[in-house]
Every structure is written in structure tokens, then in C-alpha cells.
Amino acid sequence: MAKKIKKKKTSSARKRLNLKLTKQQKILFGSFLILFGTALLLSFISYLFSWQADQSQYGDLSRSAETQNWLSKFGANAGNFFIYKGFGIASFIIAFLIILSGIYYFMNYERKNLLKNWIWGLVLIIWL
Q: What is the total count of domains within the chain?
């Protein structure tokens, strides 16, 4: 009879990639989305008041450039990209959808309703 030889698993064997987030990762990702969405919302609001004064500063990356936007250069460039070159006032919906996604991840809600909100939000953006 032939002996059965047991093969040891080597470290070179590939592990499967796991895309599920842990609870800590969901909280961190949700917090990031809430903060990023709030930053976008503030930059859009400020852009409506200061777009004329900041118009010459778009794309200028020098430290000496002064903007009147509440979030400085980031806010001015984000507002210009989304509102002036992008979707206009409908860009506020994007900020709200990002904040809503952050809340869903942070609170660990069921994401089926989140998908429905994103679909209706995108339809509303296209309609506007």
C-alpha cells in the first residue's frame, strides 16, 4: 500500500479577498462620509455667496491665493466643479446623498433603502 503524504499549506497559498467591512470599519467609513458630505454642503452654500470674488482663484494652487469661501480653496474649487461646471443647484442632492450614506454606514442600517434613495436622488438630479 502506498503511504499518504500530507501536504503542508505554505504561506504562498492565496487567501480569498474579503470585502465585508467590520463594525469598526463601518463606523470609520460612515464618519468619513458624513464629514465629507458636510464639507461639500458648506462649500456649496458658501459658493453661492462668494463665487464672483473667488472666480480668479479657481485652479490656483499657490499658498498666497486668498478665497472668500468658507472652506478656502477646497470649497471654492469643489463649488466651481459641482455647481458651475456640473449639475448646478442639483449638486446639493449629491451632498445630501453622501451624508445619508454616511449615516446608514455609521448606524448600520439596512442598505436596501439607501439604494432606493440614491436611485431617486439621481433621477431628481437628472430631472433638475
A: 1
User: 16 lies in a domain?
Assistant: no
Distance, in Å, from the CA atom of 60 to the CA atom of 126, rounded to the nearest integer, reads: 30
Assigned C-alpha cell, 51: 463665487
**Residue 38 scores a pLDDT above 80:** yes
Q: Is residue 117 part of a domain?
A: yes
Residue 32's pLDDT band, with cuts at 50, 70 and 90, is very high
Q: Per-residue DSSP letters for 53-114?
A: HHGGGTT---TT----STTHHHHHHHHIIIIITTSGGGHHHHHHHHHHHHHHHHHT--THHH
* pLDDT, tens digit, 9 for 90 and up, residues 6-19: 666 555 567 777 77
Domain that holds residue 90: 23-52+71-127
Are the C-beta atoms of residues 102 and 85 closer than 8 Å to each other? no
In a domain, 14, yes or no: no
